[in-house]
């Protein structure tokens, strides 16, 4: 049983998690607006946006270490009462974001066309995608600056201002997008430019937040190298996710149109609920990092137990809700009889996995807050290599369809849950102090 002193009030958790959920949901909602605007241009521009947007998302997700890694380092310093040092981590993450963003921008101008042609084949769709991507990735430095901003602000337990900044940026983009696409006649390129303007607004607000903190804004190469060390583990972990998810989509598409459509519907719902559950993980990351920074191993463990139970309960509620909606919700996405008949082959996996996902995402947040990125990397890659990837490709070979694909996801999530629970029980993730280094002993 968790002692009251080891817990944090549910209100405090929600105060961090709810604004974080708003930030996580803002981008998909804007994408829907963007898609609706571009959709009226015709099939080719919409297909170009879909391909270009997918590539943009892959690049940005691969660099989320600027957010999650920064939160882990900043939260410890904040917990130790060293706010200025915590914000300084944000300064260095921002410098790193600018440097990486410039490299991404330059590579985009060189590689956008050949990568688009590789995926879509030569033709108008590849051309539309590469044109959109070249313009959209002009905003890469701004996107990464915003990621760094989210990281340090979450670390000092401020999730409200980032929500305001994201809403401001997306609001500007949402207003500009239809104006640039239609009255000004810039078409798909207008959509990309609206993205860049909105991202610039958001990045500017994050930079202003750093400036008013009155800390040194000079680059510190040693701190940036340390951030990259943790970042490499998180990038490998993200790469494992992307390999699995892209493989699942590819196998579903090769199985048939109805299978691909059904998988896409259930998969989008899975991703949406992942965002909901991930908001709890962000709160856990901030609170656990702060507890370890003030050298309270007992409270860090208590928070870990607390958020794990919350994650299980929240996931179970979502599972019950979507089980009840099984006969209704798919009709909001399609009326095709073949697709509707195929959806249940994935739907019940999706429902059953929600409690497991609740535990997994909660513990992800705990270990990210503890800076235990190397273990998360290994656990994710191992679960992918043993469970998800073999099952996906066996599904293609033996015609198992959605049952095989979602069985693979189930093995992946079960593997992650098992490895995370074992790590939580071992206590080896609990390393107190303002930094996590090999010279510090684990507190068990």
From TrEMBL:
Pfam families: MatE. CDD domains: MATE_DinF_like (cd13136). It comes from the Bacteria. The chain crosses the membrane at residues 41-59, 93-112, 132-153, 165-186, 192-213, 234-253, 265-288, 309-333, 345-367, 400-422. It is a multi-pass membrane protein. One of its GO terms (cellular component) is plasma membrane. Belongs to the multi antimicrobial extrusion (MATE) (TC 2.A.66.1) family. This is MATE family efflux protein. It comes from Haloactinomyces albus. The lineage of its organism: Bacteria, Bacillati, Actinomycetota, Actinomycetes, Actinopolysporales.
């Amino acid at each position: 049983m968790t002692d009251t002193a080891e817990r944090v009030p549910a209100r405090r958790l929600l105060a961090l998690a709810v604004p974080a959920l708003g930030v996580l949901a803002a981008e998909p909602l804007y994408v829907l607006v963007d898609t609706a605007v571009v959709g009226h241009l015709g099939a080719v521009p919409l297909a170009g946006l879909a391909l270009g947007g997918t590539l943009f998302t892959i690049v940005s997700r691969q660099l989320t270490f600027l957010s999650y890694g920064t939160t882990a380092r900043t939260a410890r310093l904040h917990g130790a009462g060293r706010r200025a040092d915590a914000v300084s981590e944000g300064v260095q993450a921002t410098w790193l974001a600018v440097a990486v963003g410039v490299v991404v921008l330059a590579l985009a101008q060189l590689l956008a066309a050949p990568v688009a042609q590789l995926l879509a084949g030569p033709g108008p769709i590849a051309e539309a995608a590469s044109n959109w991507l070249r313009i959209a990735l002009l905003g890469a430095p701004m996107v990464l600056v915003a990621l760094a901003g989210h990281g340090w602000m979450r670390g000092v337990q401020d999730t409200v201002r980032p929500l305001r900044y994201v809403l401001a940026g997306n609001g500007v983009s949402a207003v500009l997008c239809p104006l640039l696409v239609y009255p000004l006649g810039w078409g798909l390129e207008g959509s990309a430019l609206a993205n860049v303007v909105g991202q610039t607004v958001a990045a500017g607000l994050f930079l202003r937040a750093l400036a008013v903190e009155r800390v040194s804004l000079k680059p510190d190469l040693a701190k940036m190298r340390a951030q990259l060390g943790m970042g490499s583990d998180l990038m490998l972990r993200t790469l494992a996710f992307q390999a699995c998810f892209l493989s699942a989509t590819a196998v579903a598409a090769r199985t048939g149109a109805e299978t691909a459509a059904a998988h896409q519907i259930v998969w989008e719902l899975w991703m949406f609920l992942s965002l909901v559950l991930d908001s709890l993980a962000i709160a856990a990351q901030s609170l656990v990092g702060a507890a370890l920074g003030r050298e309270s191993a007992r409270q860090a463990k208590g928070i870990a137990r607390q958020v794990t139970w919350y994650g299980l309960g929240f996931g179970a509620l979502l599972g019950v809700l979507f089980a009840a909606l099984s006969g209704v919700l798919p009709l909001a996405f399609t009326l095709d009889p073949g697709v509707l008949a195929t959806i249940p082959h994935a739907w019940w996996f999706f429902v059953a996995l929600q409690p497991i996902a609740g535990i997994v995402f909660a513990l992800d947040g705990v270990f990210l807050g503890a800076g235990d990125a190397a273990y998360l990397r290994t656990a994710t890659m191992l679960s992918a290599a043993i469970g998800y990837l073999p099952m996906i490709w066996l599904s293609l070979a033996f015609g198992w369809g959605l049952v095989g694909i979602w069985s693979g996801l189930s093995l992946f999530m079960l593997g992650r849950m098992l490895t995370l629970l074992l790590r939580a029980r071992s206590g080896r993730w609990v390393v107190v102090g303002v930094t996590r280094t090999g010279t510090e002993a684990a507190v068990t």
